[in-house]
Amino acid sequence: MGYQGVERRKSDRIRANFIVSYRVLDEINNTDITQTKNMSLGGMLLTTSRKFESGMHLAIEIRLPFERNPIMMIGKVIESTEITKDLIYDTRLEFLAIDENHRSIISKTVGYYVNKDKKPTS
Prior knowledge:
This protein is of the alpha+beta class. It contains 1 helix and 7 strands.
């Protein structure tokens, strides 16, 4: 059963799988690759292979359908919840540092999927 409380998000969230590489910002050689579970203009939910402490900053590269090159940004961990013991974690991130061009690409991507989901099926 999903969340039943009041919606506090400021922007639409889409359920979509995009390829993401991430690493702890202050560490150099610890990059991992995963997929998004969902994304909005303000953040994303990732499946990660380790638990992250709230407030930790991650360097993120994401590939989106409306941009040839990966989008790079910094995200702050809001929550990291264990899904499978010592193996899989759902990690929620808030976007901290992202340039306007990349923000526009994320907005275009989210808008496309929101509109796609609203179209009636035949």
